[in-house]
């Protein structure tokens, strides 16, 4: 029988602090390109994150979850982009006071993306919102199934040729119906835009904490 391990506490010191190689990839170079393209050199003057289609819906859903003490799980993948995207979203939601956990599949499990088994598992653990990061956009059926079970799915991704026709809330600059002007964000970049939107919504300072490794980054 397959066993899943859910981690309540993420070692963000390792993922975002002590491991220098990982730190340097935490927010990829394409955000620096967005600086250049915009003519700005300030994290607060990047493109408005609410230009991303359905960002407002995602922020509203997280706000409702926080206020209603609903349970949120961040579902990532075991690639570097997926791990870092999971880490920064998890850390941000913790800072906002959300009841949040995360799940990253074992690298040897062969598990790719959200699955029916995963949806049923998190439902049995009484989660209300699933945030899928870096797992692609082929989760329409799983999102529909989650909706039928009373859960909402937010997909944070960057893969191209996405229709946006889904029961999930899909944040993706490459959705066919998204007019966000910069299309080269990777998973970490889109995850940061999500955090940027949340910080803007709550009128918070300190969003740059999630951007502090922006220099000398790789495209990932």
UniProtKB/TrEMBL annotation:
InterPro entries the UniProt entry points to: DDH_dom, DHH_sf, SSDNA_exonuclease_RecJ
Top-level taxon: Bacteria
Domain DDH residue range list: 71-199
GO molecular function, one term: exonuclease activity
Protein name, per record: DDH domain-containing protein
